[in-house]
Amino acid sequence: MTISPYFRNLRSAYNAELDDLTQDSEGLHVLDKRLAQRRKEMEFLVHMLEVSPEMVATVFHKGFRFSSLAAMNHLVTLEADELPEWDSLGHAIQMEAWTQPLVEVVKRNAMGEWFLTVAAALEFLSSKPDHLQANDSDADADADTNNQADDEMLDDDERDAKVRDEAGADWMVEQGFDRKE
Q: What is the dihedral of CA 64, 19, 52, 142, to 10 degrees?
């Protein structure tokens, strides 16, 4: 399965967000408690839909059922500005009953339907980590081989500058900005 750069970056951030919510400082499993608290804060969180969709999407964790894997596999290949209308995904995605009040809050926002599509894709991706990581690893290995050949022609200062630029670009993507190429 191919994943767009947009969803590849968001998937990492979404999984990290879930990991952060899973355990408290004493190592106790508190995911359900923290998700319940976050769901109560939805009126506030809705203002972060576009800036930090991965953070807000956690409120819908385990709230989606996917009936068309083909549609979902296609969805995760798209970039943020290519996503289909939420209503067009009704054949592929069903919401659990407990999500309905949250969906209504989200839909009142101008970006709400776009966000629901993103949240569904993130939840779909989080349910498929083993398969996807294997494909991503192959792609990363190919990219690493090409980058090594390029890096061998750079001197130490150029190599350091390239590493700093890449780290800065990665940080900007984590903050919700598009990667400059």
A: -90
Question: Quick one: how many helices (H) and strands (E) in the chain?
Answer: 9, 2
* Burial classification of residue 100, based on how many CB atoms lie within 10 Å of its CB (0-12 exposed, 13-18 middle, 19 or more buried): exposed
Q: Mind listing the pLDDT tens digit for each residue in 115-126?
A: 999 999 999 999
Burial class from Cβ neighbours inside 10 Å (0-12, 13-18, 19+) for residue 134 reads: exposed
Q: What is the pTM of this model?
A: 0.71
- Check: CB of residue 38 under 8 Å from CB of residue 58: yes
Grade residue 152 by pLDDT with cuts at 50, 70 and 90.
Answer: low
CB burial class (10 A; 0-12, 13-18, 19+) of residue 166?
exposed
Query: For residue 14, what are its two tokens?
Result: 């979404």
Distance (Å, whole) CA 176 – CA 57: 14
Query: Rounded CA gap, 7 and 30, in Å?
Result: 26
- Mean pLDDT throughout 141-146? 48
Query: What pLDDT is recorded for position 127?
Result: 86
